[in-house]
Amino acid sequence: MPEHISRKELKQDKIRESFEHGAEAVISHKRLTTIVLCVIAGAVIVAVGWRVYSERRNVNAAAAFAEASKIYNARIRAASEPAETGEITYLDVNTKLQAALSKFNEVADRYPRTYHGRQARYYGALCLEAMGRYNQALEQLQKLNNGGDKELAAQIQFQIAQVYAHTGKTNDAVKILRALADQPSVLVPRSYVMLELAGLLRAKNPKEAAVLYAQIKKEFPDSAIAEQADRRLEELPKT
User: Fold this and answer.
1) Do 115 and 131 contact (CB within 8 A), yes or no?
2) Of 95, 175, 101, nearest in space to 140 by CA
3) What is the pLDDT of residues 222-237, one digit of tens each?
């Protein structure tokens, strides 16, 4: 082996090493790019799969809720009255409500995180309230997650006020209704809340009830609510 390496040989060795390092860098870069692309592709597949699954779940929840709603809205008929072909009917209200409650609970338990699953839980509470099972209705309403839905949150609060009114907790009901009147929503409008609030106040505070009825007539003239307020105002004892 020669003791001395010429400049030409040394330069060739450096060029060879540069090519080798460059090739290694290219291979490493390609390998990294492949890994990144695989990760991205995997994430896209997961995201698309989850979206398809969620959409299918929402469709199924909506269909199940619609079936439960058919029972909830079913007609009560007399025993001697025939039902139309394919029509869901019941002979008494409690039987209908119990059947609707069972179906709504099925939907709520199966699709708890969907919009229709939360709606099913809410309507299940309405069934309980209509059957006079106020404690159970209140329990369902209080633990119902509204999912950030402002409309559902307002509906829940309004129904809790209704349960309080039925169970003698008038002051608690009035407090909730006052808050809802100040922050109305589409499904729980201010006019309707004010009418309910006046109804609760008319026994113990008829003067404030009268003020509310007059306010309804002023804020919502030529409406059905205003007509109701006018009639109820006339029914208040004159002072």
Assistant:
1) no
2) 101
3) 999 999 999 999 999 8
Closest to 119 (Cα-Cα) out of 107, 131, 130:
107
Confidence of residue 50 (pLDDT cuts 50, 70, 90): very low
Confirm if 141 and 124 have CB atoms less than 8 A apart: no
Distance separating alpha carbons of residues 230 and 12, to the nearest angstrom: 104
User: Which residues in 52-175 belong to E strands, given as ranges?
Assistant: 75-76, 89-90
Task: Measure the CA–CA gap between 167 and 135, rounded to whole angstroms.
Answer: 9
Amino acid at 134: Y
Report the 10 Å Cβ neighbour count for 75: 12
- Indicate the helix (H) or strand (E) that contains 50: helix 7-72
Count of positions (residues) in the chain: 239
Query: Which pLDDT belongs to residue 52?
Result: 53
Output the furthest CA–CA distance in the chain (Å, rounded).
126
Which pTM was predicted? 0.74
Spatial distance between the Cα atoms of 52 and 30, rounded to a whole number of angstroms: 32
Name which of 150, 134, 131 is nearest 142 in CA terms.
134
Q: Give 76's strand partners.
A: 90
